[in-house]
Amino acid sequence: MFKALLVDKTDGGVAATLRDLDDADLPEGDVTVVVDHSTVNYKDGLAVTGKGSIVRKYPMVPGIDFAGTVETSSHPDYKPGDAVVLNGWGVGESHWGGYAGKARVRGDWLVPLPQAFTPAQAMAIGTAGYTAMLAVLALEAHGVTPDAGDVIVTGASGGVGSVAVAILAKLGYRVLASTGRAAEADYLKGLGAAEIIDRKELSEPGRPLGKTRWAGGVDAVGSHTLANVLAATRHLGAVASCGLAQGMDLPASVAPFILRGVTLVGIDSVLAPKAKRLEAWARLADDLDVDKLETMTATVGLDEVPRVAKDVLAGKVRGRVVVDLGR
Ligand code: NDP
Asked: What is the pLDDT of residue 304?
């Protein structure tokens, strides 16, 4: 038997309860993993609280990512004892995920745990951090290098934002961190931010084009914030769009694209091809300081996930929250 957090429909919405499950309860898949750690991402917050339409079928074990050890495998790439990581692929949405002592998944969805990281560190990075790395790779691919000018990170105190700030600063970029939490200024400077921008400067409707302020950015927020980030991006700059913490809308104009050649790059971590995942994890091993990772991470047990899920949606969580299945 192993513990799992199961989310099921109720008359009034959904309820998340701790249950004891056994192997026979697990879904189909060619690899069974003993889960060491999972995390609470924004999407998990939506799934556990029943907000948004994240969960596609009930009952569901949420948890869009996990790190663990292969217990049984009929997949050619994995054998018992292998350390593995999973991000995305609809796990925790349409296939049972990481909030359980065991998970059964398709081996094609897994990547080997990078040697640089323990399972706990890999989940401190988690889907938020791996997405931040995908965004940095996108900026590089579009010519936004440290000598191109400043870069902005929005939603900077959140998971994607914190990891993006730390990576970009280590790579030598001058990072402007946009946050609604002035109290986190020292935290963000500790991660490497050169300047703090009050998110109010960006979150209201703005002009189609403004004075240029940065060469590019990583945006976890969407809506007016992304529109304003684009409007202040330099000629031939690029902005990676990762998230929708302010809103899913994009009330922008084409002016930055047709008058400044700005590129808006979409980041989708869920269905990213395996080669891109391996590249992102290899770069995380090189370009993210584990001591900075520690300053942005809190660890909880499975029983605390429902509380943390609410805090994530309320924008109260700083950095990353790891779920230790052994607690
Ligand atoms: P977090 O909740 O950790 O961070 C989001 C941050 O956004 C908050 O910390 C806050 O930062 C800021 N924020 C919250 N509400 C608002 C608001 N109303 N207006 C402006 N800013 C706000 O979430 P994650 O970092 O894990 O995820 C960020 C986004 O990225 C989410 O929308 C998530 O769904 C998405 N995402 C997308 C992925 C992809 O594949 N594209 C993968 C992973 C995440 P601060 O307090 O500093 O202002």
From this structure: 98
